[in-house]
Fold this sequence. Notes:
Distance between the termini: 37 Å
Number of helices: 5
Helix content: 40-55%
Largest sheet: 2 strands, antiparallel
Strand order of the largest sheet: 1-2
Shape: globular
Strand content: 5-15%
Order of helices and strands: HHHHEEH
Number of domains: 1
Amino acid sequence: xxxxxxxxxxQDAIRHPGALSxxxxxxxxxxxxxxxxxxxxxxxxxxxxxxxxxxxxRRITVTNKLKKRAVLALTLRELRRKKx
Length: 84
């Protein structure tokens, strides 16, 4: 990956809507539970976490990409809430 692509990972992530939902096994139409996003954010890379909610996969391996996507989702949610 070139240096230019590393700097633009957020723009690349926004171009692929639904990637986090697909990775978690949650339908794109449904919201991803905040408790699951927070649990992914607080876990170490390589850990296997249990999904605290009833939606999606039961056990999830935390990868670097999954953690980035979860943190981005939480950040964008907070930005949207502050705008109101």
